[in-house]
């Protein structure tokens, strides 16, 4: 099964940019599932779960602007959730449907949360994969330490070793899985391989002050509390980003979601294992009946 590659024009305050996406399944299927990746990742992270969910779903996996095959923004200060959410609205319009289901990992979950909390939201079912309105500062510091480093790799094996080291909490099963998520997140640059994202994506992330972080958390909780669609929260049991206390609080607020933990995994479950895929598929199928 081969996906289709496409793109959509989106607008930021400094001009238009192109957001690429990968699409699986029948292009006329009105049951659309949008899967959105984390901060430094790409839409191809969802290849395994996409193959598992078609033909019931038409699965669309964008490269958030600044990543993968998408353009880089002219002004990096717009590498933030409001711009990403606006881009996703353009994508949904391009897909020709009124509603979509949503699986968002980390940053992709925050984008989905910010849309689902709006009046008249186009999100019909929402999966928040290891993310919530409160983000643990230790995890943000850990991620901020490696985002945007000007790294070059002589070969794919060297790059795979690096990805496996910084992403160890994914707890992937074998070298083949690590290689798969490395290949799709690289691009050639002369005689070397480099990470396939704009190094500037981390600038807004690293410049957040304590006051701005508190204000942002309050805004996210306000959005979360307005979510009305069926919601599932997936948490890696060893996650340093979404704590158990925050996940428990999420279970009692807003959409009062089902909260499921994945044993032995940190931030974030990659939804590549059968048991993880089954959790998502069962929720989507149950909510569809």
Percent of residues in beta strands: 15-25%
Which ranges are low-confidence, i.e. pLDDT below 50, for 5 or more consecutive residues? none
Order of adjacent strands in the largest pleated sheet = 1-2-4-3-5-6-9-10
| Total tally of structural domains | 1
Helix percentage range: 25-40%
CATH-derived architecture: 3-Layer(aba) Sandwich
The whole-angstrom Rg is 18 Å
The H-and-E topology, N to C, reads as EEEHEHEHEHHHEEHHEHEH
- The CATH topology turns out to be Rossmann fold
Tally of extended strands?
10
The level-1 CATH class: Alpha Beta
What is the terminal separation in angstroms?
27 Å
Word description of this protein:
The chain is α/β, with parallel strands linked by helices and 289 residues long. It has one domain: 3-Layer(aba) Sandwich (Rossmann fold), CATH 3.40.50.1820. It contains ten helices and ten strands. The strands form two sheets. It has an eight-stranded mixed β-sheet with strand order 1-2-4-3-5-6-9-10, with helices on both faces. Strand 9, helix 9 and strand 10 form a beta-alpha-beta unit. Helix 5 crosses helix 6.
């Amino acid at each position: 099964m081969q996906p289709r590659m496409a793109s959509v024009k989106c607008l930021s305050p400094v001009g238009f940019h192109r957001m690429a996406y990968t699409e699986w399944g029948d292009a006329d299927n009105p049951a659309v599932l949008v899967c959105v990746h984390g901060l430094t990742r790409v839409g191809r992270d969802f290849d395994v779960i996409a193959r598992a969910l078609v033909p019931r779903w038409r699965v669309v996996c964008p490269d958030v602007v600044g990543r993968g095959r998408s353009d880089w923004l002219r002004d990096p200060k717009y590498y933030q959730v409001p711009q990403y959410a606006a881009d996703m609205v353009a994508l949904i319009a391009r897909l020709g449907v009124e509603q979509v289901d949503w699986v968002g990992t980390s940053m992709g979950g925050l984008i989905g949360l910010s849309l689902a909390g709006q009046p008249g939201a186009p999100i019909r079912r929402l999966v928040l994969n290891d993310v919530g309105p409160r983000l643990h500062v230790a995890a943000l510091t850990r991620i901020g330490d490696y985002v945007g480093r000007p790294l070059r790799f002589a070969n794919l094996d060297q790059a795979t070793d690096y990805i496996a080291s910084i992403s160890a909490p994914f707890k992937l099963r074998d070298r083949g899985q690590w290689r798969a998520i490395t290949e799709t997140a690289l691009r050639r640059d002369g005689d070397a391989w480099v990470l396939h994202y704009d190094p500037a994506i981390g600038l807004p992330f690293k410049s957040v002050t304590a006051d701005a972080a508190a204000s942002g958390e309050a805004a996210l909780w306000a959005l979360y509390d307005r979510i009305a669609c069926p919601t599932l929260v997936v948490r890696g049991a060893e996650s340093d980003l979404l704590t158990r206390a925050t996940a428990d609080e999420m279970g009692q607020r807003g959409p009062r979601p089902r909260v499921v933990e994945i044993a032995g995994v940190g931030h974030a479950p990659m939804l590549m294992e059968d048991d993880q895929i089954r959790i998502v598929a069962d929720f989507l199928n149950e909510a569809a009946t």
